[in-house]
Amino acid sequence: MNSIDIAVCTYRREHIVGTLRSVAQLELPADTAIRIIVADNDDTPSARERVERAAKELNLNLTYLHAPAHNISIARNACLDAATAPLLAFIDDDELVAPGWLRAMFKAMNNSNADVILGPVRALYPNCPEWMKHGDFHSTMPVWINGNIVTGYAGNVLMKRTSPVFNNLRFRADLGQGGEDTVFFSSVVKSGGTIAFTPEAIVTEAVPPERATLGWLIKRRFRFGQIHGLLLLEQPSRFQNIGKASVKAFYCFACFLVTARYFWLLRGAMHAGVVTRLMRGKHGN
Question: pTM score, two decimals?
Fold first, then answer.
């Protein structure tokens, strides 16, 4: 019998019930049992009632955890501590998993023998501007460097929890407002772990109105850049990297002025984030 824990961190989001409904409709691989771990990151256990009611209604084997407060790393670490199955998946509380999601994850894990499997997070764009739909700026996919995936994300991932690369590894509390998963999976690779990708393990995420703005996307990409800059600080060539990122930011902003394509503006914002983080150094706030 295969045993898999599926972790969902939640913070004041009623959509968690929809997420649990999608999990209840999974087509499970043969001889597979799942348990859902929900970590509530609110100051008070505000999600307990709705989560436990949904679990009973959907006949889900579910463990509810109260992991305060408003720091996603605390919630993710609570899931790591509560997990007992050899395999641990993370999804987000604003996502829906496709019926074949876990089957595709499990197949990719067996075929690749990787420590981590990533799947795509496909954004849905109700009532969003056409440029946003066309650019698909909210979807999440891995980035390959020289043919390898060197970091990951917690929105759609399956981990071989028993692998030595996860020994004593935790999400950094100082990154509890974002970027904690990027650093976590970067640490997996630096410890000798491997990350693979399967396009068939699909989760979807509708873009809410507050995220359907150019300003939100710029802040998001800038934050991505800051996290990347934090990882680059581990390299000795700090000032060289500042120069490279500055040139890239200038080029991207220039391309935006010429083409008026938001792709270049957002790319420039990311490189600007790299520069600002590198400028602060290892001990900068």
Answer: 0.94
